[in-house]
Specification:
mainly alpha; Serine Threonine Protein Phosphatase 5, Tetratricopeptide repeat; globular; TPR repeat; signal; TPR-like_helical_dom_sf; TPR_rpt
Length: 286
Protein backbone atom coordinates (compact mmCIF):
# COMPACT_ATOMS: atom_id res chain seq x y z
CA UNK A 1 0.00 0.00 0.00
CA UNK A 2 1.01 3.65 -0.22
CA UNK A 3 2.42 4.69 3.12
CA UNK A 4 1.13 7.82 4.86
CA UNK A 5 4.26 9.84 4.02
CA UNK A 6 3.73 9.12 0.30
CA UNK A 7 0.10 10.25 0.52
CA UNK A 8 1.15 13.39 2.37
CA UNK A 9 3.67 14.19 -0.37
CA UNK A 10 0.99 13.57 -3.01
CA UNK A 11 -1.46 15.88 -1.26
CA UNK A 12 1.22 18.53 -0.93
CA UNK A 13 1.97 18.22 -4.66
CA UNK A 14 -1.67 18.74 -5.56
CA UNK A 15 -1.75 21.83 -3.38
CA UNK A 16 1.35 23.17 -5.09
CA UNK A 17 -0.13 22.61 -8.55
CA UNK A 18 -3.36 24.33 -7.62
CA UNK A 19 -1.34 27.32 -6.41
CA UNK A 20 0.21 28.06 -9.82
CA UNK A 21 -0.43 31.67 -10.83
CA UNK A 22 -1.88 32.61 -7.43
CA UNK A 23 -0.47 34.42 -4.43
CA UNK A 24 -0.42 32.03 -1.48
CA UNK A 25 0.71 32.80 2.02
CA UNK A 26 3.42 30.21 2.81
CA UNK A 27 2.80 30.39 6.56
CA UNK A 28 -0.86 29.55 5.98
CA UNK A 29 0.10 26.52 3.91
CA UNK A 30 2.50 25.33 6.62
CA UNK A 31 -0.24 25.64 9.20
CA UNK A 32 -2.58 23.60 7.00
CA UNK A 33 -0.12 20.70 6.99
CA UNK A 34 0.83 20.93 10.64
CA UNK A 35 -1.75 18.44 11.92
CA UNK A 36 -3.67 15.34 10.99
CA UNK A 37 -6.81 17.14 9.86
CA UNK A 38 -5.26 18.19 6.57
CA UNK A 39 -4.08 14.64 5.97
CA UNK A 40 -7.60 13.45 6.68
CA UNK A 41 -8.82 15.93 4.10
CA UNK A 42 -6.64 14.20 1.52
CA UNK A 43 -8.60 10.99 2.06
CA UNK A 44 -6.09 9.12 4.19
CA UNK A 45 -8.76 8.07 6.69
CA UNK A 46 -10.68 6.10 4.04
CA UNK A 47 -7.47 4.61 2.66
CA UNK A 48 -6.37 3.41 6.08
CA UNK A 49 -9.78 1.86 6.75
CA UNK A 50 -10.01 -0.06 3.50
CA UNK A 51 -6.52 -1.15 2.52
CA UNK A 52 -3.07 -2.03 3.69
CA UNK A 53 -1.68 -3.34 6.94
CA UNK A 54 -4.33 -3.23 9.71
CA UNK A 55 -1.64 -2.59 12.33
CA UNK A 56 -0.50 0.45 10.33
CA UNK A 57 -4.07 1.71 10.42
CA UNK A 58 -4.24 1.12 14.18
CA UNK A 59 -1.09 3.20 14.67
CA UNK A 60 -2.42 5.99 12.44
CA UNK A 61 -5.80 6.25 14.16
CA UNK A 62 -4.34 5.90 17.64
CA UNK A 63 -2.02 8.82 16.90
CA UNK A 64 -4.81 10.85 15.31
CA UNK A 65 -7.23 10.25 18.20
CA UNK A 66 -4.54 11.27 20.67
CA UNK A 67 -3.90 14.52 18.79
CA UNK A 68 -7.60 15.31 18.52
CA UNK A 69 -9.62 13.32 21.10
CA UNK A 70 -12.83 15.16 20.19
CA UNK A 71 -12.96 13.58 16.73
CA UNK A 72 -15.29 10.57 16.91
CA UNK A 73 -14.33 9.56 13.37
CA UNK A 74 -10.78 8.94 14.54
CA UNK A 75 -12.08 6.89 17.48
CA UNK A 76 -14.27 4.86 15.11
CA UNK A 77 -11.34 4.39 12.77
CA UNK A 78 -9.25 3.05 15.62
CA UNK A 79 -11.99 0.62 16.71
CA UNK A 80 -12.58 -0.63 13.15
CA UNK A 81 -8.85 -1.04 12.54
CA UNK A 82 -8.44 -3.05 15.73
CA UNK A 83 -11.18 -5.41 14.52
CA UNK A 84 -9.41 -5.73 11.15
CA UNK A 85 -6.20 -6.52 13.01
CA UNK A 86 -8.07 -9.21 14.99
CA UNK A 87 -7.19 -7.45 18.25
CA UNK A 88 -10.68 -8.00 19.60
CA UNK A 89 -10.29 -7.19 23.32
CA UNK A 90 -8.69 -3.86 22.37
CA UNK A 91 -11.42 -3.31 19.78
CA UNK A 92 -14.06 -3.84 22.47
CA UNK A 93 -12.44 -1.16 24.63
CA UNK A 94 -12.18 1.19 21.64
CA UNK A 95 -15.85 0.75 20.71
CA UNK A 96 -16.81 1.31 24.35
CA UNK A 97 -15.05 4.68 24.14
CA UNK A 98 -16.86 5.46 20.90
CA UNK A 99 -20.33 4.88 22.36
CA UNK A 100 -19.41 7.08 25.34
CA UNK A 101 -18.98 9.96 22.89
CA UNK A 102 -21.98 12.29 22.54
CA UNK A 103 -21.89 11.80 18.78
CA UNK A 104 -22.21 8.01 18.92
CA UNK A 105 -24.99 6.18 17.05
CA UNK A 106 -26.84 2.89 17.24
CA UNK A 107 -24.55 1.59 14.50
CA UNK A 108 -21.66 2.11 16.92
CA UNK A 109 -23.48 0.02 19.53
CA UNK A 110 -24.00 -2.75 16.99
CA UNK A 111 -20.28 -2.60 16.21
CA UNK A 112 -19.53 -2.95 19.94
CA UNK A 113 -21.75 -6.04 20.09
CA UNK A 114 -19.88 -7.47 17.11
CA UNK A 115 -16.52 -6.92 18.84
CA UNK A 116 -17.86 -8.54 22.01
CA UNK A 117 -18.95 -11.64 20.07
CA UNK A 118 -15.54 -11.81 18.42
CA UNK A 119 -14.07 -11.71 21.95
CA UNK A 120 -16.41 -14.58 22.91
CA UNK A 121 -18.33 -12.35 25.29
CA UNK A 122 -21.78 -13.41 24.14
CA UNK A 123 -23.79 -12.41 27.20
CA UNK A 124 -22.58 -8.82 27.15
CA UNK A 125 -23.08 -8.63 23.38
CA UNK A 126 -26.68 -9.75 23.82
CA UNK A 127 -27.24 -7.08 26.46
CA UNK A 128 -25.83 -4.37 24.18
CA UNK A 129 -28.16 -5.45 21.38
CA UNK A 130 -31.15 -5.58 23.75
CA UNK A 131 -30.49 -1.95 24.69
CA UNK A 132 -30.72 -0.83 21.05
CA UNK A 133 -34.23 0.28 20.02
CA UNK A 134 -36.06 -2.33 17.91
CA UNK A 135 -36.66 0.35 15.29
CA UNK A 136 -32.95 0.19 14.41
CA UNK A 137 -33.24 -2.44 11.69
CA UNK A 138 -29.97 -3.05 9.85
CA UNK A 139 -28.26 -6.01 8.23
CA UNK A 140 -25.48 -6.02 10.80
CA UNK A 141 -27.88 -5.90 13.73
CA UNK A 142 -30.00 -8.83 12.47
CA UNK A 143 -26.88 -10.84 11.56
CA UNK A 144 -25.70 -10.60 15.16
CA UNK A 145 -29.18 -11.29 16.55
CA UNK A 146 -29.27 -14.48 14.46
CA UNK A 147 -25.90 -15.60 15.78
CA UNK A 148 -26.98 -15.03 19.37
CA UNK A 149 -30.23 -16.94 18.77
CA UNK A 150 -28.08 -19.75 17.37
CA UNK A 151 -25.96 -19.78 20.51
CA UNK A 152 -29.14 -20.37 22.53
CA UNK A 153 -30.36 -23.01 20.04
CA UNK A 154 -33.44 -20.88 19.41
CA UNK A 155 -33.69 -22.18 15.85
CA UNK A 156 -36.97 -20.59 14.77
CA UNK A 157 -35.82 -17.21 16.01
CA UNK A 158 -32.44 -17.64 14.35
CA UNK A 159 -34.05 -18.54 11.00
CA UNK A 160 -36.23 -15.44 11.19
CA UNK A 161 -33.26 -13.16 11.89
CA UNK A 162 -31.11 -14.74 9.16
CA UNK A 163 -33.93 -14.31 6.64
CA UNK A 164 -34.39 -10.64 7.52
CA UNK A 165 -30.61 -10.01 7.45
CA UNK A 166 -30.28 -11.61 4.01
CA UNK A 167 -33.00 -9.31 2.71
CA UNK A 168 -31.29 -6.19 4.04
CA UNK A 169 -28.08 -6.46 2.02
CA UNK A 170 -27.08 -6.63 -1.63
CA UNK A 171 -24.24 -9.00 -0.67
CA UNK A 172 -25.89 -11.79 1.36
CA UNK A 173 -23.28 -14.51 0.72
CA UNK A 174 -21.70 -14.40 4.16
CA UNK A 175 -24.99 -14.42 6.06
CA UNK A 176 -26.34 -17.22 3.86
CA UNK A 177 -23.20 -19.19 4.68
CA UNK A 178 -23.73 -18.56 8.41
CA UNK A 179 -27.35 -19.59 8.11
CA UNK A 180 -26.33 -22.74 6.28
CA UNK A 181 -23.81 -23.58 8.97
CA UNK A 182 -26.55 -23.14 11.56
CA UNK A 183 -28.67 -25.67 9.65
CA UNK A 184 -25.66 -27.98 9.34
CA UNK A 185 -25.09 -27.93 13.09
CA UNK A 186 -28.73 -28.93 13.63
CA UNK A 187 -28.49 -31.86 11.22
CA UNK A 188 -30.73 -30.20 8.60
CA UNK A 189 -28.32 -31.18 5.83
CA UNK A 190 -30.61 -30.68 2.84
CA UNK A 191 -31.58 -27.14 3.87
CA UNK A 192 -27.95 -26.39 4.67
CA UNK A 193 -26.91 -27.55 1.19
CA UNK A 194 -29.39 -25.18 -0.45
CA UNK A 195 -28.19 -22.22 1.62
CA UNK A 196 -24.53 -22.90 0.87
CA UNK A 197 -25.35 -23.18 -2.83
CA UNK A 198 -27.17 -19.83 -2.65
CA UNK A 199 -24.15 -18.29 -0.91
CA UNK A 200 -21.84 -19.52 -3.67
CA UNK A 201 -24.14 -18.15 -6.36
CA UNK A 202 -23.91 -14.77 -4.64
CA UNK A 203 -20.12 -15.01 -4.23
CA UNK A 204 -18.42 -17.71 -6.35
CA UNK A 205 -15.10 -17.06 -4.57
CA UNK A 206 -16.39 -17.75 -1.04
CA UNK A 207 -14.38 -20.87 -0.22
CA UNK A 208 -15.88 -21.39 3.25
CA UNK A 209 -19.30 -21.83 1.63
CA UNK A 210 -17.84 -24.30 -0.88
CA UNK A 211 -16.26 -26.32 1.91
CA UNK A 212 -19.48 -26.25 3.93
CA UNK A 213 -21.48 -27.30 0.87
CA UNK A 214 -19.25 -30.36 0.48
CA UNK A 215 -19.70 -31.15 4.19
CA UNK A 216 -23.49 -30.98 3.83
CA UNK A 217 -23.43 -33.24 0.77
CA UNK A 218 -21.04 -35.68 2.43
CA UNK A 219 -23.24 -35.88 5.51
CA UNK A 220 -26.03 -37.11 3.20
CA UNK A 221 -23.79 -39.72 1.57
CA UNK A 222 -23.34 -37.71 -1.62
CA UNK A 223 -19.63 -37.89 -2.37
CA UNK A 224 -19.59 -36.15 -5.76
CA UNK A 225 -18.20 -32.64 -5.95
CA UNK A 226 -20.87 -30.16 -7.09
CA UNK A 227 -20.42 -28.23 -10.33
CA UNK A 228 -19.03 -24.84 -9.34
CA UNK A 229 -16.11 -22.53 -9.93
CA UNK A 230 -12.96 -23.77 -8.16
CA UNK A 231 -9.19 -23.65 -8.52
CA UNK A 232 -7.07 -26.79 -8.64
CA UNK A 233 -5.97 -26.23 -5.05
CA UNK A 234 -9.57 -25.69 -3.94
CA UNK A 235 -10.64 -28.88 -5.72
CA UNK A 236 -7.98 -30.84 -3.83
CA UNK A 237 -9.01 -29.32 -0.49
CA UNK A 238 -12.68 -30.04 -1.18
CA UNK A 239 -11.89 -33.65 -2.07
CA UNK A 240 -10.08 -33.94 1.25
CA UNK A 241 -13.12 -32.53 3.10
CA UNK A 242 -15.39 -34.94 1.25
CA UNK A 243 -13.09 -37.84 2.07
CA UNK A 244 -13.12 -37.04 5.76
CA UNK A 245 -16.92 -36.68 5.65
CA UNK A 246 -17.13 -40.16 4.11
CA UNK A 247 -14.94 -41.61 6.85
CA UNK A 248 -17.11 -39.97 9.48
CA UNK A 249 -20.16 -41.72 7.99
CA UNK A 250 -18.30 -45.03 8.14
CA UNK A 251 -17.54 -45.21 4.41
CA UNK A 252 -13.82 -45.67 5.00
CA UNK A 253 -12.83 -47.10 1.62
CA UNK A 254 -14.66 -44.31 -0.22
CA UNK A 255 -12.97 -41.79 2.06
CA UNK A 256 -9.54 -43.26 1.30
CA UNK A 257 -10.25 -43.05 -2.43
CA UNK A 258 -11.26 -39.40 -2.14
CA UNK A 259 -8.11 -38.61 -0.17
CA UNK A 260 -6.00 -40.26 -2.88
CA UNK A 261 -7.82 -38.12 -5.45
CA UNK A 262 -7.01 -35.05 -3.35
CA UNK A 263 -3.31 -35.96 -3.32
CA UNK A 264 -3.28 -36.46 -7.09
CA UNK A 265 -5.22 -33.26 -7.75
CA UNK A 266 -3.16 -30.89 -5.63
CA UNK A 267 -0.41 -29.19 -7.67
CA UNK A 268 2.02 -29.55 -4.76
CA UNK A 269 2.49 -31.96 -1.86
CA UNK A 270 -0.75 -31.99 0.15
CA UNK A 271 0.50 -32.74 3.65
CA UNK A 272 -2.87 -32.71 5.43
CA UNK A 273 -4.43 -35.22 3.02
CA UNK A 274 -1.31 -37.39 3.12
CA UNK A 275 -1.40 -37.55 6.92
CA UNK A 276 -5.10 -38.42 6.94
CA UNK A 277 -4.59 -41.18 4.39
CA UNK A 278 -1.58 -42.59 6.23
CA UNK A 279 -3.59 -42.67 9.46
CA UNK A 280 -6.50 -44.48 7.78
CA UNK A 281 -4.32 -47.04 6.05
CA UNK A 282 -2.45 -47.62 9.30
CA UNK A 283 -5.74 -48.18 11.11
CA UNK A 284 -6.98 -50.63 8.47
CA UNK A 285 -3.66 -52.49 8.38
CA UNK A 286 -3.65 -52.86 12.13
Amino acid sequence: MRHPNVLIAFAAGLLALSACGKDIDKDAVDREFSGVNAIDGAGLTEVMLSAGDPDEAVAYFARSAEQDPTRIDFQRGLAKSLVRAKRYPEATSAWTQVIAHEGSTNDDRVALADALIRSNNWAQAEQVLNDIPPTHETFQRYRLEAMIADSHQQWQKADSFYEVAAGLTTKPASVLNNWGYSKLSRGDYADAEKLFADAIRQDPKLFTAKNNLVLARGAQGNYALPVMQMTQVERAELLQTLGLAAVKRGDVEIGKGLLRDALETHPQHFEAAARALDALEGTVTN
